[in-house]
């Protein structure tokens, strides 16, 4: 985790005031609602009430280029006084209209807690362990916001309104953690930078595919689940952290282990239309 000394108090007064409002603002978009599946944190779309792993945000909130504080995080299901934290599980991705690539101008994404940068995600960074950022009350209720700030390499905190980041969609992949609950499956937040609704929706749909193809268990792309898929999984068996679907991580937890093997064996011999 990279903690910088930059805080809201060191920014120009007009921007500091705007960010202070943003960090404490009520959600203006659908929250990431946190429920429990057994003892595992489960993420749900606040608008639909349906389990989800892809969420949306809009950059440029409050007129601050590249900044967002939505989606927020809310729960009424946590254990009393449970702490909520996060890890970032992959590099920052950018949708170029055809696929996900590294940000074209080497943009980075800062995550802020109470206005202070606690982590920077780049197009090359991998897994990063983050801090706790909220605590449930005595009834297990919680509502909190992180700050998300995509920055151009020439970003200067003394002139933060000059931030010419590329137009497109930026994707942050993270997981939620707790001292009293099991870590969630990875989730993606897709941030829109000046895309029209149709193009942004294409990016959101593509982000869902990051957690697995439309043919479960098919690791080699032949739309059947057989010996070659099993061999691929076994060649990566034991990977811990950072594994992808193509490595055999069928449940999206970043590992290739017994649960993935069991899932593939349950699908063994099937084909997809």
Count of individual beta strands:
15
Strand content range: 25-35%
Give the overall silhouette: globular
Q: How far apart lie the N and C ends?
A: 44 Å
Number of domains: 2
> Helical region count?
4
Main sheet summary: 7 strands, mixed
Structural class: alpha+beta
Please tell me the overall pLDDT. Answer: 88
The low-pLDDT segments are: 1-10, 23-28
> What share of the residues lie within helices?
10-25%
SSE series: HEEEEEEEEEEEEEEEHHH
The Cα radius of gyration reads: 19 Å
Annotation keywords:
single chain; alpha+beta; Type 1 dockerin domain; 2 domains; 4-stranded mixed β-sheet; 16% helix
Helix-strand blueprint:
Layout: H1 13-24, E1 32-37, E2 40-45, E3 54-58, E4 67-68, E5 73-75, E6 83-88, E7 93-95, E8 100-101, E9 108-113, E10 116-121, E11 128-135, E12 142-144, E13 147-151, E14 168-178, E15 187-193, H2 197-208, H3 227-235, H4 258-267
Q: What can you tell me about this protein's structure?
A:
A hairpin with a 4-residue loop joins β7 and β8 (100-101). Strands 3, 6, 7, 8, 11, 14 and 15 form a 7-stranded mixed β-sheet that branches. The protein has a 4-stranded mixed β-sheet with strand order 2-1-5-12, with no helix packed on it. A 4-stranded antiparallel β-sheet has the order 4-13-9-10, with no helix packed on it. The radius of gyration is 19 Å and the shape is globular. The chain has 2 domains: 8-211, no CATH class; 212-273, Dockerin domain (Type 1 dockerin domain), CATH 1.10.1330.10. Residues 1-10 and 23-28 have low confidence and may be disordered. The longest helix has 12 residues, at 13-24. It has helices at residues 13-24, 197-208, 227-235, 258-267, and strands at 32-37, 40-45, 54-58, 67-68, 73-75, 83-88, 93-95, 100-101, 108-113, 116-121, 128-135, 142-144, 147-151, 168-178, 187-193. It is 16% helix and 29% strand.
